[in-house]
């Protein structure tokens, strides 16, 4: 079992994601909606090697992962989401009311039949393995029924290898532009491109404000997602890498390109990171899911209790979603930056270590 139940697989944006109008007349009145193609439709998406055509804006979308669900909710599309599934965390702050109106098909992966019961006209997922063999169903299974599918390009872009084992590996670092690109793509797919631009602008401003005048170039961070016996720790180039680069710090395991390699505690002790960024999960699939359980382990285990970050209690708690490529990666940047300031590490050359 891999580190995440939000997986089936990881999320990385394909630079090649294109949404292009192909053949919409653009001349129909509001009364004609439903009788003829909406302006700008059909819309063709080149997504992860699949040509996906939307004949009209989706009205009954099903989102199979929390990450894609939160994008849709943030775009104000709750009334067009017929179901959601696979959650690791409480919903993003500010989206509680919108989320409450969306049926939860399953806390983890739903069955193919359960999804079909929701009568979807569009299915989205954060990970390739959600819509692949061993996942909810393959994209081809949905497409044979006339249901277009979309996978977060973050998980299928150039540089992401999902066949390398575990959660895959990346030869090219994830950038926030990947997350912003997905937001724009989904906004255009639903015919609300202006909302996508507004959300991207808001996220960029949050990043700018949270990282302004932050000098932590000598500070090392370690990201722990789950599992106490054989912990899943962040490699160089996924969402934690994007967070680390945004704040200007260093990842203790920047020398591995695996998305979430399992690394022994003895190796962690040798690296002795300055700060531990800890996943605070509400799911119950691995050992040490909650931050409380992780900290209890760190402070009592002989291999970890003498780590610098443990002795000085330098813990930054993040949701699981913030540690995957998603709108909440920005939340991760804000919290890590705030933690570094609180620990007195944000001064010249990272000072107070």
Automatic annotation (TrEMBL):
Residues 1-30 form the signal peptide. It comes from the Bacteria. InterPro entries: ABC_Transporter_SBP, ABC_transptr_periplasmic_BD. Residues 60-344 form the Fe/B12 periplasmic-binding domain. Belongs to the bacterial solute-binding protein 8 family. Residues 153-173 are annotated as: Disordered. This is ABC transporter substrate-binding protein. It comes from Streptomyces machairae. Keywords: Signal.
């Amino acid at each position: 079992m891999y580190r995440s139940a939000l997986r089936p697989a990881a999320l990385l944006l394909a630079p090649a994601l294109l949404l292009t109008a192909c053949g919409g007349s653009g001349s129909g009145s509001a009364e004609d909606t439903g009788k003829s193609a909406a302006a700008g439709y059909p819309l063709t998406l080149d997504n992860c090697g699949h040509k996906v055509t939307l004949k009209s804006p989706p009205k009954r979308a099903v989102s199979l992962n929390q990450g894609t669900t939160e994008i849709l909710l943030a775009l104000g599309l709750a009334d067009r989401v017929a179901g959601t599934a696979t959650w690791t965390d409480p919903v993003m702050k500010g989206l509680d009311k919108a989320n409450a109106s969306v049926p939860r098909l399953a806390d983890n992966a739903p069955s193919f039949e359960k999804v079909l019961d929701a009568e979807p006209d569009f299915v989205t997922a954060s990970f390739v393995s959600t819509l692949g063999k061993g996942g909810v169903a393959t994209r081809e299974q949905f497409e044979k029924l006339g249901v277009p599918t979309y996978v977060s390009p973050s998980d299928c872009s150039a540089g992401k290898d999902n066949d390398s084992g575990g959660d895959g590996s990346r030869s090219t670092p994830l950038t926030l532009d990947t997350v912003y690109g997905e937001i724009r793509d989904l906004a255009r797919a639903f015919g609300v491109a202006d909302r996508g631009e507004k959300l991207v602008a808001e996220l960029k401003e949050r990043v700018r404000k949270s990282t302004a005048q932050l000098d932590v170039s000598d500070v090392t961070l370690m990201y722990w997602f789950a599992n106490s016996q054989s912990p899943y720790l962040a490699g160089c180039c996924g969402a934690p890498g994007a967070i680390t680069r945004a704040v200007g710090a260093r990842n203790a395991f920047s020398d591995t390109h695996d998305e979430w390699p399992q690394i022994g505690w003895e190796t962690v002790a040798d690296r002795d990171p300055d700060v531990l960024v800890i996943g605070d999960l509400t799911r119950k699939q691995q050992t040490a899911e909650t931050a409380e359980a992780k900290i209890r382990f760190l402070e009592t285990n002989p291999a970890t209790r003498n780590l610098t970050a443990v002795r000085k209690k330098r813990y930054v708690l993040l949701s699981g979603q913030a540690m995957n490529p998603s709108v909440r990666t920005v939340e991760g940047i804000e919290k890590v930056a705030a933690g570094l300031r609180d620990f007195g590490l944000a001064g010249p050359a990272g000072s107070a270590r």
